[in-house]
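Lab notebook, bench 4. We co-purified these components, and the gel suggests they stay together. Before we commit to crystallization screens, I want a quick structural picture of the whole thing.
Request: model the full complex, all chains together.
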Amino acid sequence: MRILVVEDEPGISSFLKQGLEEEAFAVDVADNGKVGLELALSGSYDLLLLDWMLPGFSGIEITRQFRKEFPSTPILFLTAKDTVDETIVGLQSGANDYIKKPFHFEELLERIRVQLRSKVGEYEKFTLGPIELYTDRHQVYKNGEEVQLTQKEFALLEYLLRNKNKVCRRTRIIESVWDIHFEYNTGVIDVFINSLRKKLDLQKDEDYILTVRGVGYMAKEK
Amino acid sequence: MRILVVEDEPGISSFLKQGLEEEAFAVDVADNGKVGLELALSGSYDLLLLDWMLPGFSGIEITRQFRKEFPSTPILFLTAKDTVDETIVGLQSGANDYIKKPFHFEELLERIRVQLRSKVGEYEKFTLGPIELYTDRHQVYKNGEEVQLTQKEFALLEYLLRNKNKVCRRTRIIESVWDIHFEYNTGVIDVFINSLRKKLDLQKDEDYILTVRGVGYMAKEK
DNA sequence: CTTTCTGCTAAGAAGGGGCTTAAAATATTA
DNA sequence: TAATATTTTAAGCCCCTTCTTAGCAGAAAG
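Here is the predicted assembly.
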C-alpha cells in the first residue's frame, strides 16, 4: 500500500513517514502543494494524507484536482485547529475523512485502515508459535506444513492473530469476522474455534488459542 | 465516564449500551429526540452519541439546543448513508465527529476515546502497588505476571481500583458490581474479596485491600 | 471475661458458559 | 439439477463460576 504524505513541517512529515513505514506502508513525502499534486496525479498511490495549510496549492485545490482524475482513492486531511469550517470545506471538496492535530498515531492508523479496508491488503504475515498465516495467499502453515482452512476459519484465525496477546471479546469477533453489528446470540464462534483447534492439531502443551471465560478468546504467544 | 445514546432502533441502542458498558462507560439510552434532549440538558454526561434520524427532535435540533448550554461536551453522530450533506450539516450545527452506519465497534470506540482524551487520560490502566489492571484488555498483573481472574473478580477489583483510597460501602459495591439495587443480605462480597486476596497472593505486609469493619472495603496505596 | 457482632474461610449447590457433535440450512461446484 | 463443501443451528454434556450456607475467629461492647 502506497501513501503520499503532503506536509510542509519536516518534523511531522518525518514522524509520519517513519511511523507508517513501520506499519509496512510505502511512503512518499512532498513538502509543498505543487509537488504534492504532481506526485498524486502520477496515480501510484492508494491513499493521500494532506496537511490542509500548505505552501503552493492548498489542500482544497489538491483535493479538487485529484478527484477529477481519481474518484475513488481515499483522501485524509489534517486540520490544524478545531475549526469546523476547514473540516466542512474539506469534506465538500471530496476528502473522505479528517483528523485534527495534534493526533495520536494509533488513531491515524485506524482511520487509514478504515479507508483502505475495501482495497486488498498487501502481503501480510502473522505468526503464533509454530503457526504462520499469510493474508495475501490465504494460506496457513503449522511447522511448515500447510493447513487447509475454510474462509470463515481463516478469517477468524486472522482476526485473532491481528489481535495477538489481547483478549478478543465475542461481540467484537462477531462484528469483525461475521459482520453482524447489532445483536448476537449464537454459538458459531465456539464451533469455529473448535474446528480451528482441531485442524491446527493443537496438543495439550500448545495452548495458543485460549478461551477467556465469559469474555471471549485470545491468541497467545508463550 | 457517562455517555448518552439517543437512538430509536432498539437493536442498535442495546448493542451500543452493552458494548460501551463492557468498556466501562456508564450508558443511558433515550429512544426519541424529546427525551434525549431532556436527559442531555440535565448535564450529567461526558459525551453524546446521536442518531441523526430520530422521532421527536432531529439530531440537528438536539445539537443546537445542547450546544447553547454545554459548549464543550463532545457530540458524535451516526449517519445512515454516505451522504456528505448530512455530515456537513451535523458538523456545522456543533457536532464534533461523525461515523457512518454500519460501523465497526472498534472504530466507534476509537473516536469516542479521541473525544474524551482531553478529559481523561489515555487507555485505562489502574495500579495498586505491584498490581496493574487494564480495563480494555481485561487483564491483571502482579509484579508483571498475569493473574487469571474471573469476570466477577475482575469487576470487583476494577471497582475498588476506580475508587482507590476511598472506602467503598458494601451497598455501593453490590449495586455497581452485582447490579442489585434493593436491599441485600448476602456474603458474596466477602467471598470474592477472599478469592481476590488469594489469587493476588497478598502477603501480610501487602495490605492493599483493607477491610473497613461495619462499612466495606478499600483499595489503599501505601 | 463473656456476649454479641462482623468478617473470614471452606465446602457444596446451583447456574451458566463453553465444548462437542450431529443435523439442517446455505453456498459452491460440477 | 445433483453432488459436495461450508456455514449455521441446536442439544446434551461437563466443568467452571457464582452464590449460599455454616462454622469459626477475632473485634467491639457490656
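Chain A touches chain B at residues 84, 87-88, 91-92, 103-104, 106-107, 110, 114, 166-167, 169, 171-172, 175-176, 179, 181-183, 212-215 (CB under 8 Å). Worth comparing against the SEC data before the next meeting. The first helix of chain A runs from residue 10 to 22.
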